[in-house]
Request: fold
Amino acid sequence: MDKLTIRDLDASGKRVLVRVDFNVPLEDGKITDDSRIRAALPTIRALLAQNARVILASHLGRPDGKVQDGLRLRPVAERLSQLLRMPVPVTGDALGAGTQDAVRRLRPGEVLLLENLRFHAEEEKNDPEFAKALASYAEVYVNDAFGTAHRAHASTVGVAKLLPAYAGLLMEREIAQLSNLLENPARPFAAIIGGAKVSGKIKVLEHLMGKVDVFVIGGGMANTFLLAQGYSVGKSLAEPDRVEDARRILAAAEAAGVRVVLPVDVVVAKEVTRGSEYKTIPVAKIPASWHIVDVGRQTLALMEEALEPARTIFWNGPLGVFEIPVFGTGTRQIARFLAARAEAGATVVVGGGDSVAAVEQEGLASKMTHISTGGGASLEFLEGRELPGIAVLLDRPKTTTATGPSGAPSRDPEASA
Ligand code: ADP
Ligand code: MG
Reply:
């Protein structure tokens, strides 16, 4: 990795501000899924083992710059306290004299959680004064919130410019796993792209085009490609204004020798609702007033045949409207298939909020090589974009052992910075 991580840091006795992603789902004030809290534990534990004073900062939900009691971090602090088996006090506010005081009193080996950063509109605006206030709490900054690394906010970018900034262990793992897909995947490399919209994922398809051997396209995404192939898709979710993009992608794939697997049969429903009438039909026979809600059995067989030899597989986007169980057959079957491939030694990476939810519903998360904690962030990463929250972290100094053609040490123009 070309960024410094907490492995490069001696945090002993230091105040360390750690940006974590504790944006967990809540129902009636109860956390329904604590995986994001668990994902931050390795970094927190490593810093505590170094005897650091750990100040955690996160957002929760979208309070839009106002205090919302339902989005306070207290339930998160309680859960974290259970997991760490130590008290985790949470401040009443991310700013203010009380918080400054709590930070000052924090001793080595203790943890403090700042209240929801997004109670202040300044957070998302990357306000310099807000960043300065956060920076004043600590001597070192660590970013472990990969899920917000694509946002230039005060706690992800502003503060990182004011303190020595390191990657946490979760951040390190996300960057390593996703970079591996782009830079060095074991071949054949297959990408399964599904979900709702072509428009949001077109850049990912384009960036992966030069890298994958196989594209498997399903879900709502596939409908626009079916239009591009000349089929009618009835009332299905599709983006007619993206048909040209789909055609371009299909042509580019053909030119590059990339195999594209599209549905040959689909499940169609009268309405996209529970209890609606549904049937499986070939893609050439989609009734004008029905909706595509899942891939069919022949399609699944075709997809599995194409994926079988792959040594690296990336999956983003469900293959159907999996929230309605009868339309989730394709998504569940692919999840199970990928878990089996991972167990057989393939590298399987799953990214995207809904795809990850589908894998977790099936209890298969632990079988996959990597489950990305960042939906939007992982997609932007795979578009080849530099994420602002990563770019701002300290670069690993380049080694100076290289020698030039004359045998004299070569001058690396970037190494002097
Ligand atoms: P992710 O969060 O994994 O990136 P998306 O947000 O792009 O995935 O897409 C997930 C959504 O796509 C789900 O809500 C699912 O119901 C929907 N979806 C999948 N297939 C279809 C389809 N054929 N028609 C309509 N919606 C679909
Ligand atoms: Mg989604």
Q: What stands out?
A: The longest helix spans residues 35-49. Residues 187-345 form a domain with the Rossmann fold fold (CATH 3.40.50.1260). DSSP finds 15 helices and 16 strands in the chain.
